[in-house]
Amino acid sequence: MDKLRVFKSGDEDSDGLSVEDYPSQEVAVRVQLQRAIEEERYDEAALLRDSLQQLQQRYQDAAAKSGADLAGSAGQQRFYIGQRVEHRELGYRAVVYGWDSDCCENEKWKASADVPSLQHGEKQTFYHVLVDARDWPADSGDAPVPVAYVAHEKLYAPQWPSTWVSERGPDDFKNLMRSILFLGDDENGDLIPTRALRDRLKQQRRDVFPPPPP
């Protein structure tokens, strides 16, 4: 079973964070920042903005030190940021907001998540996904922003010409981080990532909108 968590462990930097921790850590800080702004705690919001910038710099530094590929291996088939996906076994709905070209977790996590039993093992893309809050167990006792780290072979997404909307109909994705990491929905039902998220993963904008009326 996949681990639905915010923090994971692995090779750590000087502050105790591993490369694969950073996307989820960034989600947690952005949630705190959003709440501080909404509650007009502007001094705290300013400190959180500084923390976010520092975290992003540490992410780049840690990735360079470890040799991690932030954008995944060129030519490797993978889902894209903002793509709506569903877990093939657990059935939860999610949206992709990052990935590693192979599993970056330590051996203890791989064993607990049963990674060795996967058809392609740890040598496949592993995705950071936001999980739809409607599919998040209310009694999980975990962080309020549901995220998961999942192997490519465990995720399903419609393949063109099928789309999320054509298969599922209108389906408004629910997650506290939706409005922070994404701008909205495209015609296919996928989410449109912010420029900051696209730039961090070196991805082009690829949203689809309805044609203008005649």
UniProtKB/TrEMBL annotation:
Cite the source lineage: Eukaryota, Viridiplantae, Chlorophyta, core chlorophytes, Trebouxiophyceae
Instruction: Please give the SUPFAM superfamilies that the UniProt record associates with this protein.
Output: YccV-like
Say which domain of life the source belongs to.
Eukaryota
* Molecular functions per Gene Ontology: DNA binding
SMART domains in the record: YccV-like
PANTHER family in UniProt = HEMIMETHYLATED DNA-BINDING DOMAIN-CONTAINING PROTEIN
- List every stretch annotated Disordered: 1-21
- Positions the record marks as coiled coil are none
NCBIfam families xref list: yccV
- What is this protein's record name? Hemimethylated DNA-binding domain-containing protein
- InterPro entries linked to this entry: Clp_protease_adapter_ClpF, Hemimethylated_DNA-bd_dom, Hemimethylated_DNA-bd_sf, UVR_dom
Q: Which Pfam families match?
A: UVR, YccV-like
Please report the stretch or stretches of sequence annotated as the Hemimethylated DNA-binding domain: 76-194
Sequence ranges of Basic and acidic residues compositional bias:
1-11
